[in-house]
Write a structure and sequence with these properties.
about 140 residues; alpha+beta; five-stranded antiparallel beta sheet; 5 strands; about 50% helix
């Protein structure tokens, strides 16, 4: 099973709404399925155009490693050589910081991820978690 397009759209809308409620800088939000493929993406007005790559990197790393962004960052701080090598194995596509939110089904199986960027990484994660909650999907940042 994987997150579907309807859920992805709900996640993005709720993430953006939370960002506005929090007064965050313009966000870019991507949702990927269990294979790391992009289902949906939105970049708010005035968000820099390069934000897709950052959002996608946060989500892709979460899915491919089965590890949310906060855990990736902790691992990178503890074992930078390992995370650098792992990122190299995946073509440098990971962005191992908060805002890469892992999505799981009721049985704990990874079904996709959210990547949020635009504000601080911690704020990105808060907004993304609100998106997952709105879609009724278990999430970890």
């Amino acid at each position: 099973m994987s997150v579907n397009l309807e859920q992805a759209r709900t996640i993005i809308a709720a993430t953006r709404a939370k960002g506005r409620d929090m007064g965050l800088r313009p966000l870019a939000v991507v949702v990927v399925d269990a294979g790391g493929h992009v289902l949906a993406f939105e970049r708010e007005d005035s968000a820099p155009p390069g934000r897709f790559a950052v959002a996608q990197g946060k989500a892709y790393g979460a899915v491919m490693l089965g590890m949310a962004g906060r855990a990736q960052m902790a691992r990178a701080e503890a074992q930078s050589y390992f995370m650098t090598a792992l990122n190299g194995a995946y073509g440098g596509q990971f962005v191992p910081v908060p805002g890469g939110i892992l999505l799981r089904d009721a049985g704990g199986v990874v079904i996709g991820a959210i990547g949020v960027t635009g504000d601080t990484s911690d704020n990105d994660a808060i907004a993304g978690l609100a998106g997952a909650l709105a879609a009724g999907i278990a999430a970890e940042d």
